[in-house]
Amino acid sequence: MVRTRISPWLKVERASFGGGGLDVARSGGADRPFVTAIPTGAAVDLQLAGKALRWGRHPIGPAGARVATADGLLVSRVVITDPVRVRVYPMTEPFEAVEAMPRAAGLVGAHHSRRPGEGGELAGVRMFGPGDRLRRIDWRVSLRARQLHVAATLSDRDAEVVVLLDVLAEAGRSGGINGAASVLDTTVRAAAAIGEHYLHRGDRVAMLEYGPAARRLRPATGRRQYLTVLEWLLDVMAESSPHEPYDQVFGPQLLSADALVVVLTPLLDERSAQMLARLARGGRFVVAVDTLPADLTPPKDRGWAEVAYRLWRLDRDTMIGQLREHGVPVVRWAGAGSLDQVLRDVARLAIAPRVGAR
């Protein structure tokens, strides 16, 4: 007889001992003991099959096993095993974004920069100069102009994308068969989708938490970084804090001035809005993604609960309007194409001359 504890986010639908086949659904679920007959000198395995209702690290166990023989006259002591954690990665939604980046920092990548260099994008034709390669000579223009001319190109540069997760507050219902998503669910799934997209494009991706833990994942590229991002996201949890986490998370050595900062926030805490405004005033390229569920139901209690909810909604809309006045675009997460127009606007602002610049 085996009995084990199972995380509420794991729905066990069937269990079997070896090839014996014990249907848990007909036995009343996984909260009841699993019983089977074991021949002398043999061993069997308990196999559990079901669905995971939520991402994260879900424990199975501790489990207790007891053996009885001689029609129950002899019963062994219970043997307790340690719990085992099952890793459930977030289900990423399809996400695509335009290639326009505000400012690329590296010398390799898929984004075309505004600087001349060794790339594949033609920038024009100019006269041959010291250091130019012979394979760049445009012979048609050279024969017509009677002087050597070379094809000028733009360098292909990579970009650094910082995905910032606001974990100060949680709202909504998570998981379930109906596919409901809370703020944290939307935040983690959006972070996984954005990271997968830009890592596939060859960019560097970093992860940050805006909360008391102040966890950070260093920027890197490639398939290994994507797997590291998924592992890092499994430990994300909502943590409220009475202190301002800005000084703990952000510093000049953490956020590059040329990085695109994508902030996933429900805007439930005023400190989140203040953090976004400070980043924009500091010259960072910031995009705020609203992760608050659109189907958030107002409270049904008696009294002034519904009026207070409406006032809170109006105050939140005012806060979003103030952020846009500070130059922080706020868009709702909607999967593929959520950031297309915003990234175009941010890239356009990056090439515009700054006020007061010399």
The largest sheet is: 6 strands, mixed
**CATH domain class name of the largest domain:** Alpha Beta
Percent of residues in beta strands?
Answer: 25-35%
User: Helicity level, as a percent range?
Assistant: 25-40%
Average pLDDT metric: 78
Which spans have pLDDT < 50 for at least 5 consecutive residues? Answer: 23-28, 354-358
Radius of gyration: 28 Å
Order of helices and strands: EEHEEEEEEEHEEHEEHHEHEHEH
Tell me the strand order in the biggest sheet: 13-12-11-14-15-16
CATH architecture call of the largest domain:
3-Layer(aba) Sandwich
User: What is the SS-derived class?
Assistant: alpha/beta
Describe this structure in words.
This protein has three domains: 2-88, no CATH class; 111-157, no CATH class; 160-350, Rossmann fold. 25% of the residues lie in helices and 28% in strands. The chain is built from eight helices and 16 strands. The strands form five sheets. It has a six-stranded mixed β-sheet with strand order 13-12-11-14-15-16, with helices on both faces. Helix 3 packs antiparallel against helix 4 (222-233). The termini are far apart.
Brief digest:
The chain is an alpha/beta fold. 25% of the residues lie in helices and 28% in strands.
